[in-house]
Amino acid sequence: MKKVAIVGYAQHPILENAGALNEVELIMPVVHQLFDELGISQNNIDFTCSGSCDYLQGAAFAFVEGLSAIQTNPPIKESHVEMDAAWAMYESMLKIQMGDADTALIYGFGKSSPGRLDSIISLQMDPYYISPLWPDRVSLAAIQARVLLEKNIVTPEQMITAVIEARTNSKNNKNALVTELVDKEAYLASEKISSPLNEFDCPPISDGSSAMIIASEEKAYDFTDQPIFIEGIDHRIESSNIGSRDLSKPTGILASIEQLKLEKTNFDVAELHTQFSHEVPYLQSVLNLNDVPTNLSGGPLVGNVMMCAGLDAIGKTYESLKSNDLTNGLAHASSGPCLQHNMLVHLEKKS
Amino acid sequence: MSDQKDLLRAPFELAYNYKRSSGPLMSKFFDALAEQKILGTKSSTGKVYAPAAEFDPETHESLSDLVEVGPGGVIESFSWIEEPKHHHLIKNPFAFALIKLDGADTALLHMVTECNEADLKIGSRVTANWSATMENRITDIKFFTLEK
Question: How many structural domains compose chain A?
Answer without folding.
Answer: 1
